[in-house]
Amino acid sequence: MTICGKEGVVMKEMYAIAEREGINIRWWDFAPPLRGLYWAPKDLPPVIALDNALENNTPLLRSIFAEELGHHFTLDRAAICRTYFNYRDRLAVSRAEYRAWKWAAEYLIPKKQLRKALRNGNGTLWDLAELFDVTEEMMEFRLKLA
After folding, report:
1. What span, in angstroms and rounded, lies between the C-alpha atoms of 116 and 119?
2. What is the pTM assigned to this prediction?
3. For labelling, which of 16, 40, 77, 142 has a CA lying 20 to 30 Å from the CA of 24?
4. How open is the CA angle 77-65-14, to the nearest 5 degrees?
5. 140: left (phi over 0), alpha (psi -120 to 50) or beta
């Protein structure tokens, strides 16, 4: 069972956030390892594209959707649509990914609820990931932030 039995509520909240922010959600067939992307051209509404394969994997869908929302809230839109050529550009991409992951982890796994889950004996990575309905990778990242 997920935290508070609200597995569908957070998904609805994320869709509501996207709608409120004017973000279009699109579903496509991506080739692995690509599962989602955030695209925000200068003169068009931003788009979050999600892989159709996520439909049957709720923890992965929630984690990726939240990360893409994280890009919306943490990126400079002017820097999104450009080509990266050098090491400094790659570092900027890494920082952008980190900020998006941090936003997603803190959104999906609030510190107060995480502390409560740990106090209640949910000590393993997979137990916590299942409880919060996220990937183990997302949970591991969140635990490092805590």
Report:
1. 5
2. 0.86
3. 142
4. 90
5. alpha
Contact 48, 36 (CB under 8 A): yes
Which tens digits make up the pLDDT trace of 31-79? 999 999 999 988 899 999 999 999 999 999 999 999 999 999 998 765 5
What is the domain range of residue 140?
3-145
DSSP run (H or E) holding 33: none
Q: What is the pLDDT of residues 71-85, one digit of tens each?
A: 999 987 655 555 556
First-to-final CA distance of the chain: 23
Contact 117, 86 (CB under 8 A): no
Apex CA 91: angle with CA 88 and CA 45, to 5°? 100
Cis peptide before 33 (omega within 30 of 0): yes
* Coil, strand or helix at 49: strand
Count of domains for the chain: 1
